[in-house]
Amino acid sequence: MKKLDLDVIEMVVAVAEAKSFVRGAALVHRSPSAVSMQIKTLEEALGKPLFKRNTRHVEVTTEGMALLDYGRKMLNLRQEAWAAIVRPEVTGRIVLGVPDDYAPSLLPTTLRRFSLAHPRVEIHVIGRPSSELIPLLEDSTLDLACITRTPRISGEHIRFEPIVWAGSPARAVWEERPLPLAVFEHGSVARERAITALQQQGIPFRMSYESPSLTGLVSMVEAGLAIAPMALCALPERLRRLTESDGLPEIGKVEIVLARSARSNRPPCDYLAEQILSGS
Question: Residue 40 and residue 274: Cα distance in Å, rounded?
Fold first, then answer.
């Protein structure tokens, strides 16, 4: 029982949810090597493997799934106990904005823990591109928003996110010229930087598909009709990450920030903002 350190359990949960030691380590603010070593030590103590490792991602074993179920309960109970002792009960409603491509990596764990700690706070999430969320912040329709940093609005740093090229493993459409692109609508930082990168390399391109929806972009890419610039955290495993070896330029990274509206100066918003920024 002494081997079930909650900090290590948190690492196991993070790696399982991120399906990657690198991304999981970022969630708990540790180095990948430290997380790998701690989990390996736990596996040796248990005498059972928790993950199957390969070059692309990790899979949770049957024993790992059992530990995950208990581990999440233990971590949730720790969060509840902490909140019950150090914070008064809070009530209210929070309207949170987040783009579809950032939501899966930013929200599930944080919102689950926040809801357990503050069950009387109602959370309403609006999923739209960053460019559409900014006006909603400015008129206080939103309380908080996790968005791509732009000169128009300030925010607190969450993380840097690589923007990568996504292609279908079934068809090398990235070899076509002009290069067919599936992109977000005007205002998207990923779109602008991807186009700039292509122009700097002198690669001709054409707009094959434009949409505010990540699902639409993924569908076009999966069908082999275009490639798309998208956040690495949103890249489905079934698609191929394209690199310079495929004849495409690097796009770089964007900064994800937490921005607040004028009406967010309330305890529920403060507590949720704290959890988002800490990644816990």
Answer: 31
Q: d(Cα 279, Cα 28) in Å, to the nearest integer? A: 7
> pLDDT per residue over 236-248, tens digit each?
989 999 999 999 9
What count of other Cβ atoms lies within 10 Å of the Cβ of residue 74?
Answer: 16
Number of C-alpha atoms within 13 angstroms, CB side, residue 201? 16
Using DSSP's 3-state secondary structure scheme, residue 226 falls into coil
Q: How many residues make up the chain in this entry?
A: 280
Residue 55's SS3 state is coil
DSSP class of residue 150 equals B
pTM of the model: 0.73
CA distances from 236 to 51, 63, 150, 219 (A): 20, 26, 26, 11
Tokens of 15: 């790696």
SS3 171: coil
What number of CA atoms fall less than 13 Å from residue 36's CA on the CB side? 11
